[in-house]
Amino acid sequence: MTTAPGPLDRWYEAAGVRGGVRRLFHAETEAGRVFFPEALVPHLDHPEVRALPPHAVRELTVRHLYQFLHATTHLETRVVNGAAEPVANGRAGMDFPTGLRMDAFKVYCDEGYHALYSLDLADQIARVTGIPVPDVDYGGFVTALQAAGRALLPDDPLLAGQLQAVVFETLITAVLNEVPQDPRVVSTVRDLMRDHARDEGRHHRFFSAFFLELWARLDRHRRIAAGRALPAMIRAALDWDLGPVHTSLRLAGLDEERSRAVLADAYGEGAVTARIRTVSRATVRLAAQAGAFDLPGVREAFAAHGLSEPEGGDD
Ligand SMILES: [Fe+2]
Ligand SMILES: [Fe+2]
């Protein structure tokens, strides 16, 4: 990692926070466009939701974008920066070279900026459209990741934090790439997703390399614990956070009983596991590359979450 070219070597020239533009939402050029790809909002396809008036469906889509943007701010600053900081400051209990510590600060700067522009875009859209951002907890993914860490690595919070960041950072590129460059989506939203995906492509490569550096510094006991914790963290990062969805359905006019029925139908187990398998492919491959599947109990832990060792082929 000290000699080979690193993914953040050209950070001063390439990072969004160094040279990007502020994305501004203009309602007049966006007429007729959707705020989030409808295929990625599972509840929109439910008969109860389709029966709602068009303005209520539009508001649901806007609130889905708000949830995406606000959840991003929590994950970036609390999970990723929470893990980048001890590495950057040399207090992770492991000896990392100065170049890697500076890379961790580059990530830290990037994530602060991603959080800022995510909050900024949600705020701009709320002001222009008059659709308020519901005052609910958007940190559900963070809570779930932290709970997985506490349950599986109760005596090793530092390692838990590092793994949460590695898992999230090797998943997010696939999540951002799920939002297609579909011209029916509001252009400001697409531009922002593209800006973010560019930085996250570099982060993905950084955290993949970092994971192997981290792994090399773990003894067998910590490797086994880490390997067994990874699938629960993948799950926690990708399971839907239904709290804000529930609020959004109620705000759209569905009563409690109908809202709960929509959640149960649209977010059932089958669809969730299929998506998790696809989106987590790179993360699972990374665990395999480190040799995690050769350790006792790791294969079983992945299987318990519907995940398995990738067959053959490398990245
Ligand atoms: Fe980010
Ligand atoms: Fe990132």
Question: Can you tell me about this structure?
Answer:
- With 315 residues, this protein is mainly α.
- The chain has a single domain (51-304), classed as Ribonucleotide Reductase, subunit A (Orthogonal Bundle), CATH 1.10.620.
- Helix content is 67%, strand content 0%.
- The chain is built from 14 helices and no strands.
- It has helices at 11-14, 16-19, 47-50, 54-88, 98-129, 140-152, 157-178, 187-216, 220-238, 242-251, 256-266, 269-279, 281-289, 298-304.
- Helix 6 packs antiparallel against helix 9 and helix 10 crosses helix 11 (256-266).
- The protein is globular.
- The mean pLDDT is 93.
- Bound molecules: fe (ii) ion (2 copies).
- The site of one fe (ii) ion has 6 residues, from helix 5 and helix 8.
- The site of one fe (ii) ion has 5 residues, from helix 8.
- It comes from Streptomyces marincola.
- This is p-aminobenzoate N-oxygenase AurF.
- InterPro entries: AurF/CmlI (IPR025859), RNR-like (IPR012348).
Write the layout of secondary structure elements.
Elements: H1 11-14, H2 16-19, H3 47-50, H4 54-88, H5 98-129, H6 140-152, H7 157-178, H8 187-216, H9 220-238, H10 242-251, H11 256-266, H12 269-279, H13 281-289, H14 298-304
Helix pairs in contact: 4-5, 4-6, 4-7, 4-10, 5-8, 6-7, 6-9, 7-8, 7-9, 9-14, 10-11
The structure holds fe (ii) ion (FE2) (2 copies).
